[in-house]
Specification:
Helices cover 69% and strands 12% of the residues. By secondary structure, the protein is α+β, with helices and mostly antiparallel strands. The protein folds into two domains: 78 residues, Winged helix-like DNA-binding domain superfamily/Winged helix DNA-binding domain (Arc Repressor Mutant, subunit A); 31 residues.
Length: 112
Amino acid sequence: MDRNQKLRAEARAAVLKAMAHPTRVYIVDLIERDGPQCVCEITSRIGVDTSTVSRHLSVLKSVGILQDSKQGTTVYYSLTCDCISEFMAGLEKVLSAVHRRDVERFQAAVGP
């Protein structure tokens, strides 16, 4: 692996690591589906404290998944690009393939 390949792999891993938490996946899904959200809106939807939501938002923002914009005194978070739906669709395809494989293994194990 050359230097550029290593840097690219590290950058990709950082994004995947940021997405490797169910709450952050939910936040990204929420913003992708419903549009920009403020911390208070996300907090009420998730049901955890504001500081926890803020930490999750900070992680997502630090790797470039989210961006923020201030409207008056309220900060709204939005996706940096619309490619997240394609990313999530790819994940769903992986999950479906794993499920099919698991079903086939189970059926092979228990017989017809």
